[in-house]
């Protein structure tokens, strides 16, 4: 019988790992990839949806396009994970695996911020971005607060990007002069590992009159008074609140008993969990990189190579470096780039490439090349 590899979650991590394993050993393994959704969408496509640049349909990439040697995709909701027996239950079937990969990402805990559900908006889920697509055209001016409600959170540049893109949106609709924009962030700088990127972002905030409030979180919303309350009790009145909600591991992962301090602990070098034959990649783990697609993808590559070495009795691959490239929307049709490396040196380090119109095409290629690699060339 071929070794059974079960991949839970078809996001950035699960898709890259499945693609690599299929390419390298697809004829010698039985790969099952499970996701509850019928399509994938990039995190950054939520900006396109909320600001009305693309329809929700246009950003969805259907999983039925996955046709790869050795791979079976199942659209099912995972309801139970037993990491010791490597047994998984879904709403439709039971699975047993020889190797199990958890790539279920991070969920949002809206209820952890009192008043947020009633009084705020979030743009971190596609549903939230779709709602904002309806809310924004009705906004006629006032105080806009972009607020981080908990750490860690996905894509550390995203709150800064939201503030800058909001500035563009309000300018385009002729109401920027009737608005104030504030950004509440838990870090001291927008992108702590890259001082140059942080400097460029702070300059962009200053040029656009965006108030940056570092080292704070939004702890609660008072929906009746339209006020955001920070961790030190300061009150920030708002007319539009855009939340980065508190994150948590998916409930099924918490229930499995695999989490330590909220996330799955792994060996930094190869993404193995303490359970033999079980790996955890991407946002669901606590490896020490930010929660972002590029890191999920990098971890997937190392985990895939480690699995191949395990199955084929080969050499262990080069340890995971925790590095990757992030594109940062600066607004005004320009994109910057930061190369970050978390594990190679004594401390994380990021180098910055100045925002430009040319980098817009690089970011587009980042998306289109992955779509082609994971889903094949043709759209429906
Ligand atoms: C606004 C925004 C902008 C972003 N911009 C960028 C960017 O520019 N660059 C970048 O690198 N990252 C960006 N990100 C972050 C990026 O989207 C995530 O970090 C990345 O998707 C994580 O990959 P993952 O594989 O760990 O999890 P995910 O991609 O979230 O995949 C997890 C999968 O598991 C599935 N799942 C969860 N629970 C279950 C269940 N019970 N049963 C079945 N399936 C389940 C989900 O449906 C999902 O498909 C952005 C995020 C946001 C919100």
Kindly describe this structure.
- By secondary structure, this protein is α/β, with parallel strands linked by helices.
- The chain folds into 2 domains: 4-106 and 249-319, FAD/NAD(P)-binding domain (3-Layer(bba) Sandwich), CATH 3.50.50; 110-246, FAD/NAD(P)-binding domain.
- Helices cover 29% and strands 28% of the residues.
- It has 10 helices and 25 strands.
- It has helices spanning 12-25, 45-50, 56-59, 116-119, 126-138, 158-172, 195-207, 251-255, 293-312, 358-375, and strands spanning 4-8, 30-35, 39-40, 61-62, 71-75, 78-82, 87-90, 94-96, 99-102, 107-108, 121-122, 142-148, 179-184, 210-213, 218-222, 227-230, 235-237, 240-244, 247-248, 259-260, 263-264, 278-280, 323-331, 334-341, 349-356.
- Strands 5-2-1-9-22 form a 5-stranded parallel β-sheet, with helices on one face.
- A hairpin with a 3-residue loop joins β7 (87-90) and β8 (94-96).
- α1 (12-25) packs parallel to α9.
- The longest helix has 20 residues, at 293-312.
- It binds flavin-adenine dinucleotide.
- The site of flavin-adenine dinucleotide has 34 residues, from α1, β2, α9 and β23.
């Amino acid at each position: 019988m071929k070794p059974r590899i079960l991949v839970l979650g078809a996001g950035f991590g699960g898709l890259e790992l499945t693609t690599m394993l299929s390419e390298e050993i697809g004829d010698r393994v039985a790969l099952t990839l499970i996701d509850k959704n019928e399509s994938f969408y990039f995190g950054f496509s939520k900006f396109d949806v909320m600001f009305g640049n693309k329809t929700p349909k246009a950003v969805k990439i259907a999983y039925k396009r996955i046709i790869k040697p050795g791979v079976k995709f199942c659209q099912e909701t995972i309801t139970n994970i037993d990491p010791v027996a490597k047994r998984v239950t879904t709403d439709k079937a039971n699975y047993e695996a020889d190797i199990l990969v958890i790539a279920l990402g991070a969920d949002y805990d809206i209820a952890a911020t009192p008043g947020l559900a009633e009084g705020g908006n979030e743009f971190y889920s596609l549903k939230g971005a779709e709602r904002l697509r309806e809310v924004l055209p009705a906004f006629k001016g006032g105080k806009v607060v972009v607020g981080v409600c908990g750490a860690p959170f996905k894509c550390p540049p995203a709150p800064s990007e939201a503030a800058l893109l909001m500035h563009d949106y309000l300018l385009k609709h002729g109401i920027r002069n009737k608005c104030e924009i504030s950004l509440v962030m838990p870090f001291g700088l927008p992108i702590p590992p890259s001082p140059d990127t942080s400097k460029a972002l702070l300059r962009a905030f200053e040029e656009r009159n965006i108030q940056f409030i570092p080292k704070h979180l939004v702890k609660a919303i008072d929906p009746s008074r339209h006020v955001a309350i920070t961790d030190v009790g300061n009150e920030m009145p708002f007319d539009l609140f855009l939340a980065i909600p508190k994150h948590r591991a998916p409930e099924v992962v918490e229930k499995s008993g695999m989490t330590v301090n909220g996330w799955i602990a792994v060996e930094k070098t190869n993404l193995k969990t303490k359970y033999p034959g079980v790996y955890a990649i991407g946002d669901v783990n606590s490896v020490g990189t930010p929660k972002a697609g590029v890191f999920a993808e990098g971890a997937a590559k190392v985990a895939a190579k480690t699995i191949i070495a395990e199955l084929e009795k080969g050499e262990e691959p080069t340890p995971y470096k925790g590095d990757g490239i992030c594109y940062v929307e600066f607004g005004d049709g320009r994109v910057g780039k930061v190369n970050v490396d978390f594990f190679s040196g004594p401390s994380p380090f990021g180098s910055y490439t100045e925002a430009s119109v040319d980098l817009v095409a690089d970011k587009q290629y980042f998306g289109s090349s992955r779509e082609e690699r994971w889903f094949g060339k043709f759209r429906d």
